[in-house]
Design brief:
Distance between the termini: 39 Å
Strand order of the largest sheet: 6-7-9-8
Structural class: alpha+beta
Radius of gyration: 24 Å
Number of strands: 13
Largest sheet: 4 strands, antiparallel
Strand content: 15-25%
Length: about 400
């Protein structure tokens, strides 16, 4: 199914690449991308509705008593059709995520990446084509551009889940709800309350309750400018597209492996280079669950490689030697424990004499996941954690 949409996806990817060269000088391209996304997304949503309707009709045939009944073979054929339709729905939903990844590229072009994460930690939108105020939203979006500003329709992204339209201006982000009714109701009041909380976090650096967790949240800036290896990743991708396999130790204890053809031997080769069992991630496996991260539509530079990645014809793997993590923390008098918790992946404890055993820093799976999804430098990442321990921080969620 993905092959049917390749031309549209690659074309949109090319427009994003052109826009990145001059984001504010080509604002008309930003609007054009969103209008195309809107057409593609609403079309795919219609195909999903058709599949659901087909499943209902097929199930009705199974339940309805026919005058002569249906044979086992006929019943099995109907069940197979139901299974096929459900499979199509899954594929269509993945397509929606990929098209919205183009929308994510727009968001990360105009909005600071660390402002985006708290905006992504919320339930995703329903069908865009079923929104009563869609026409009004589109009109409002076009009005924003006619006034010389940049606007992003949030439902065209995976990462902007508060409000309807986001407008970046002078380093700040303004989030607008577009409503056609005259009177507020309980739903709109709840939306405004949630938006106010996240707005306080972005503008004032603190809020009461975030990420579905009660309590006071305070924002802490990064200690140093972010360091990543996306250029090295793309060099490996280019090589793997030609030579099937490409890998490198991009820094001490951090390995990237890119495959356009499966080769089990190379996994063993890289694992043997590690002093302990490596922390391993097949990045392809989390490509549909990466809301709030820097999008692959920006991390991967070549349109054909990006398309191959989503088709699983190009595999990207990241391996980390956990010994390097332990040794870095030991230098600073810290201990590290990896966990298998659904929310937290690591606990860092201060081992210096006189410190209480309860003094520690917990690192969320989302923050740790930046190493694999955003291809961050391991050394830089560990130094950031060390700095947060010294500040006395106890939790790191990833929304600095």
């Amino acid at each position: 199914m993905l092959a049917y949409y390749k031309r549209s996806l690659v074309s949109l990817f090319g427009l994003v690449k052109a826009l990145r060269a001059d984001p504010y000088g080509q604002s008309e391209t930003c609007l054009a991308i969103q209008e195309r996304l809107l057409r593609n997304i609403t079309y795919i949503e219609q195909k999903i509705r058709e599949c659901h309707a087909s499943i209902r009709n097929l199930n009705k045939r199974l339940r309805t008593q026919q005058p002569t009944g249906i044979t086992k073979a006929e019943a099995q054929a109907i069940k197979n059709e139901v299974s096929d339709s459900r499979h199509k729905i899954d594929e269509y939903r993945q397509l929606l995520t990929i098209f919205r990844e183009i929308g994510d590229a727009l968001a990360f072009t105009y909005i600071d990446k660390y402002d985006i994460k708290p905006l992504a930690m919320k339930e995703g939108p329903g069908f865009l084509s079923q929104k009563a105020g869609l026409r009004l939203e589109l009109k409002a979006l076009r009005t924003v551009f006619s006034l010389g500003r940049i606007g992003i329709m949030n439902d065209l992204t995976n990462c902007l889940r508060y409000g309807d339209i986001s407008v970046p201006k002078d380093g700040k982000l303004y989030i607008f709800e577009v409503k056609s009714g005259n009177y507020p109701n309980s739903r709109t009041q709840r939306q405004f309350t949630e938006a106010r909380k996240v707005s306080n976090y972005l503008t004032k650096g603190e809020t009461d309750g975030l990420y579905g967790i009660n309590g006071q949240f305070q924002r802490i800036s990064l200690h140093s400018p972010e360091v990543h290896h996306r250029d090295q990743l793309n060099a490996l991708i280019s090589s793997a597209m030609k030579n099937e396999t490409s890998y490198a130790e991009v820094e001490d204890g951090l390995y990237y492996l890119v495959l356009s053809k499966f080769d089990a031997g190379v996994f063993d080769l890289l694992s043997n280079k590690c002093k302990s069992k490596p922390i391993f991630s097949m990045v392809n496996e989390i490509k549909y669950d990466s809301a709030g991260y820097y999008p692959f539509s920006l991390s991967i530079y070549d349109s054909e490689a990006w398309y191959a990645f989503h088709c699983d014809k190009l595999a990207v793997c990241v391996l980390i030697d956990s010994t390097v993590i332990e040794n870095e923390f030991k230098v600073h008098g810290l201990g590290m424990e990896l966990r298998l918790d659904k929310d937290w992946v690591m606990a860092i404890t201060n081992l210096r004499p006189g410190r209480g055993e309860t003094e520690h820093l917990q690192v969320s799976r989302h923050f740790f996941g930046r190493l694999f999804v955003e291809f961050l430098s391991l050394g830089w990442f560990l130094q950031e954690l060390v700095h947060k321990v010294k500040l006395g921080q106890t939790l790191v969620h990833g929304g600095e």
